[in-house]
From TrEMBL:
Name of protein: GNAT family N-acetyltransferase
InterPro entries from the UniProt entry: Acyl_CoA_acyltransferase (IPR016181), GNAT_dom (IPR000182)
Molecular function in Gene Ontology: acyltransferase activity, transferring groups other than amino-acyl groups
PROSITE patterns (UniProt xref): GNAT
Domain N-acetyltransferase: 1-100
Leader sequence residues: none
Alphabetical list of Pfam families matching this protein: Acetyltransf_3
Native organism: Thalassomonas viridans
Length: 104
């Protein structure tokens, strides 16, 4: 859950899911209340998550799916170092961040 301080108002959340087969590769997702779009909150959420997982030795990669029409999230993922991977599912695009290569 993502909250604004000091009122502790919930404005969004981040989901992290590991599959049984590849626990070192995590799927992530995030959702932000519409009135907080385009204010830098999604970037702050994602960068904090990346910072945390770069310090976790047992996580090699993060995956994210995004609607192809959600250009703001596509740009954010690319800005944070995610690369598009082959394959789509309907109108969704998929991205991967290799934490072993991006541990600066």
């Amino acid at each position: 859950m993502v909250q604004l301080k000091p009122a502790r108002q919930t404005i969004g959340f981040i989901l992290v899911h590991a599959t049984q087969e590849k626990k070192e590769e995590l799927n992530i997702g995030y959702l932000l209340a519409q009135q907080y779009w385009h204010q830098g909150f999604a970037g702050e959420m994602l960068l904090a998550l990346l910072h945390y997982y770069r310090d976790q030795q047992n996580v090699r990669a993060l995956y994210a799916g995004v609607g192809a029409s959600n250009t703001a999230s596509v740009r954010l993922l690319e800005k944070c170092g995610f690369s598009r991977v082959s394959g789509t599912s309907g109108e969704n695009l998929f991205y991967r961040l290799n934490l072993e290569e991006n541990s600066a």
